[in-house]
Request: fold
Amino acid sequence: MDKLKILQVEVELVQGDITQQDDIDVIVNAANAQLETGGGVAGAIHRAAGHGLAEECRPMAPIKPGEAVISSGHQLPNPFVIHCLGPVYGVDQPSDALLADCYRNALLLADEHKLASIAFPSISTGAFGYPIKPAAGIALDTIKAIVPSLKNIQKIRIVLFDQTDFETFDKKLGQLNI
Ligand code: AR6
Reply:
């Protein structure tokens, strides 16, 4: 299952690159606390957006684990970027609650800005070491719990870079009790 409707919101999974989601209003960055370019998904987003993104973000840094801030998308195809700091697994505690905060805060921030569509990467499961299986469960459970509070968002996409990560999320989506 790679698509599911929860109330008014379509939740979908795709395998691909978060910087190439040109039908989406806001993409989420798995950022570092300083909102600097960094590696992984953050590096890809900053490269695609151009230098203006880091410049705009500088005054908003540092952010804390679980926090989300919004910027414009610069040269990305998306008008906005939401930057979330995921927990470093086993270091920022409780990691599960902090990871859930990322998804919840990003969704609420996008909804406050009256955006209709949002795309997430798998936050914290790269350099920050969060195991993909529990991370997928937290991401999808948090989305399910927050959907009834959303007024504007109609599409939530999760973009998985790796095929195996896609399969893990796909299985969890199939297990979500709607
Ligand atoms: N599109 C979608 N997903 C991607 C892409 C992409 N272009 N590139 C990587 N991924 P990570 P974290 C996946 O390490 O664990 C950075 O250096 C990747 O396969 O980007 O939250 C920051 O500056 C993985 O599943 O984020 C921070 O210091 C997922 O994105 C730190 O890493 C997250 O991997 C954040 O670590």
